């Protein structure tokens, strides 16, 4: 067990989640990853930082799977101090194109996932009277982006859930916050809508494409002891597209 305890990150086999895992490993956390695929590359990168690593293939929409995963993490790494609910899916579909199966799948992963992972891990944090939860939303919620009806609805739910949970667990030494990234340069996002990278960065105060590494400092702060009086908040990490 590291002196900072264990940080649990969902959806960290690649992309932004992998960047979070590597940064928190550099910060001194042992790392546990839940994803729908094996996290071999993340394991390699994390262990290179000299900390412990554990991963499992987990369906974050399953109460049984998330509870079992939490028990495995506690057994293998111990002292669970941080949870980053990063797993998400984002079909580019309008309201007319979104059937109920798609709606349920998006809500399941993007909103049920953070709820179920929090249900599974908060008891361990309560035992320690300490914890940091970071949920991942999106600036699309504030920008009313078209063609993403289910996705934006799910991320609005994440923000509401975060505020409600923060009110309930603060007395236990647990903070709950949101990072809302802007459009970030990942392979999966480029495969969905590559042309958006040509114009969207021009709408930002910092007019460049956001890389996963541009986001990790926010998460690093939110899971640290330095953020002890920050809870229930949503921090946009989008180069200044949303300004409030």
UniProtKB/TrEMBL annotation:
Q: Which domain of life is it from?
A: Bacteria
Listed SUPFAM superfamilies? NAD(P)-binding Rossmann-fold domains
Entry's family note: Belongs to the short-chain dehydrogenases/reductases (SDR) family.
PANTHER family from the xrefs? 3-OXOACYL-(ACYL-CARRIER-PROTEIN) REDUCTASE, 3-OXOACYL-[ACYL-CARRIER-PROTEIN] REDUCTASE FABG
What is the protein's name according to its record?
3-oxoacyl-[acyl-carrier protein] reductase/(S)-1-phenylethanol dehydrogenase
């Amino acid at each position: 067990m590291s002196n900072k305890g264990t940080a649990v990150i969902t959806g960290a086999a690649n992309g932004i989640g992998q960047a979070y895992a590597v940064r928190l490993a550099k910060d001194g956390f042992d790392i546990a990853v839940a994803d729908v695929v094996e996290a071999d590359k993340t394991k390699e990168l994390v262990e290179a930082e000299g900390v412990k690593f554990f991963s499992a293939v987990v369906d974050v929409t399953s109460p049984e799977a998330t509870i079992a995963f939490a028990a495995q993490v506690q057994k293998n790494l111990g002292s669970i101090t941080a949870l980053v609910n990063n797993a998400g899916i984002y079909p580019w579909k309008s309201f007319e194109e979104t059937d109920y199966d798609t709606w349920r799948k998006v809500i399941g992963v993007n909103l049920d996932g953070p709820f179920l992972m929090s249900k599974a891990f908060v008891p361990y944090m309560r035992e320690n009277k300490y914890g940091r939860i970071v949920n991942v939303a999106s600036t699309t919620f504030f920008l009313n982006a078209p063609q993403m009806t289910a996705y934006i609805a799910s991320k609005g739910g994440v923000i509401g859930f975060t505020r409600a949970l923060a009110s309930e667990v603060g007395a236990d030494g647990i903070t709950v916050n949101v990072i809302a990234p802007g459009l970030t340069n990942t392979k999966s996002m480029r495969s969905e809508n590559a042309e958006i990278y040509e114009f969207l960065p021009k709408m930002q105060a910092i007019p460049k494409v956001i890389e996963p590494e541009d986001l990790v400092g926010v998460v690093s702060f939110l899971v640290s002891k330095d953020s002890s009086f920050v809870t229930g908040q949503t921090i946009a990490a989008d180069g200044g597209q949303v300004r409030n």
